[in-house]
């Protein structure tokens, strides 16, 4: 009788236990209208805030897929499904890192059966047929090593092409695009996942496959970028120096043997530095959406302008580049005295108090990231080793 009493107390404690902090009803978006037959007339997916919210929730689902795996959560108690079910999507594929067995991405597809149960007979306008969502770093022992390895890869080379995750994500996205058409597919990621999404989306764009891309807190800090900045500054100093020297002086700078020194020497190494500088940048059909927070030191470099920065309303587009065309849409959150974990967090992107501005200026880093679509391989690509 005593043991039975103890079991009952334990059951009662479990029932009264506080809900998991990552449960959808606890930390998910508030006041979100359910998808219904009205969306056949006026689709919620045409609203930029709704789309941003849903896609951010899909990325959160990938984080929780890995968390459920690590904690060996039973299917009926799994946290992840609650983050896609309300939006009438279903999980069709998980992307596995073969190095540690972790889940780093997932394909979520429109769930026609679930939609029809709520009298949504067709997929609403603007809703993608399939979304490839990629998570960022999880600081838990089961996956931390490989996550940080890829973080360091980006820090060193500003490229993730050497990672097995890049190869897997590219193959999956290409396959889904071929099945449903690139206009019906979307790729999205947060933090490290945004880095992969950017480079996978760019790789497909080079092949003429343009997939809608959403990047939340994409990494922008790297040693490679710093080296290029040094090259740009060195060339700037040299140009200023050269402007102060008479035009004929360069030819006249010779040593005692009559050989040219300064002119030839600088000419030999300045091109190497200037090769890092942005060349002729054209704008194509691929227009990624970037969501950054100025208090997040990981992604804030995307807001550094190449020229005067201006800000307009959210109904405008980033038209600050050549020929008035769009290179990227850069949405910026500005909040003072914000802690890093909040500024870099994914939750802010479905928060009801998110105050976004769409920054309109020539972002030097965006240009640098996208210009390789129209030029040869970047120096960082040439340094990559075997996939690992």
Automatic annotation (TrEMBL):
Residue ranges, annotated region (Disordered): 1-25
InterPro entries associated with the record: AB_hydrolase_fold
Name assigned to this protein: Fungal lipase-like domain-containing protein
């Amino acid at each position: 009788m005593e043991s039975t009493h103890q079991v009952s107390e334990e059951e009662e404690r479990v029932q009264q236990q506080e809900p998991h902090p990552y449960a959808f009803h606890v930390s998910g978006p508030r006041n979100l209208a359910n998808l219904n037959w009205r969306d056949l007339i006026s689709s919620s997916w045409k609203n930029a805030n709704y789309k941003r919210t849903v896609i951010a929730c899909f990325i959160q689902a990938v984080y929780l897929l890995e968390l459920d795996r690590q904690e060996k959560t039973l299917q009926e108690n799994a946290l992840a499904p609650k983050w896609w079910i309300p939006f009438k999507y279903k999980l069709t594929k998980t992307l596995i890192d073969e190095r540690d067995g972790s889940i780093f991405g997932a394909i979520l597809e429109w769930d026609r059966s679930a939609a029809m149960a709520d009298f949504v007979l067709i997929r609403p306008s603007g809703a993608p047929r399939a979304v490839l969502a990629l998570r960022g770093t999880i600081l838990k022992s089961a996956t931390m090593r490989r996550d940080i390895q890829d973080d360091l890869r980006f820090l060193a080379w500003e490229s993730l092409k050497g990672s097995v995750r890049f190869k897997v994500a590219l193959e999956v996205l290409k396959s889904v695009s071929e099945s449903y058409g690139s206009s019906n597919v979307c790729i999205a990621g947060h933090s490290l996942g945004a880095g992969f999404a950017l480079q996978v989306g760019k790789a497909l764009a080079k092949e003429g496959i343009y997939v809608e891309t959403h990047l939340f807190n994409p990494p922008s800090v790297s040693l490679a970028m710093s080296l290029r900045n040094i090259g740009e500054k060195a060339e700037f100093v040299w140009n200023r120096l050269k402007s102060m020297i008479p035009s004929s002086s360069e030819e006249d700078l010779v040593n005692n043997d009559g050989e040219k020194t300064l002119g030839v020497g600088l000419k030999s190494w300045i091109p190497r530095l200037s090769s890092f500088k942005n060349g002729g940048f054209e704008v194509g059909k691929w227009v990624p959406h970037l969501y950054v927070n100025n208090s997040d030191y990981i992604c804030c470099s995307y807001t550094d302008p190449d020229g005067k920065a201006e800000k307009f309303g959210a109904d405008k587009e980033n038209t600050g580049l050549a020929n008035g065309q769009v290179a990227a849409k850069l949405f910026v959150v500005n909040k003072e005295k914000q802690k890093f974990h909040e500024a870099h967090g994914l939750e802010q992107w479905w928060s009801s108090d998110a105050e976004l501005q769409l920054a309109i200026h020539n972002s030097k880093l965006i240009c640098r990231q996208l210009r390789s679509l129209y030029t040869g391989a970047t120096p960082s690509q040439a340094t990559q080793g075997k996939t690992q």
